[in-house]
Amino acid sequence: MALFGYDVRKIRSAVRTSIVVLLPTAPSELSSSEEALWRATMRIVTVLPSHLDADLVHGAGLTASEYITLVNLSEAANHELRMTDLAKATGLSASRTTRLVDDLQGRGLVAKVASSSDARSTRARIMSNGHGKAEVSPASSAGEPS
Q: Crossing angle, helix 64-75 and helix 83-90, to 10 degrees?
């Protein structure tokens, strides 16, 4: 699975295993080059999500939230997660996750199933069509240069 020519799983693994501290305890301690790096980083953090979202919508027909939801489900045991665990994994609120999963279910990408171990909880399970969407390479679908 590639995004802008990079293996998404390798990026995710690197992010999970690496913690980079860019800002010292007090902003006044920044040198001019550190200040420039900090400002550039903040510009990227601000602009990148909307560009990734646009590329995903264009290339895969999914928003970034929909895509990361499908990716989390495709990588989960039995390809399903409790709704609360899915919300935590995606960084979305419980109510936003419910609305998003309802929309994905309406499109045949996800199914909501009752939990066999806890009658009070619902699980989201990725369907075969959802697997196909989770494995798409948005950058190559969008005609992104190699």
A: 120
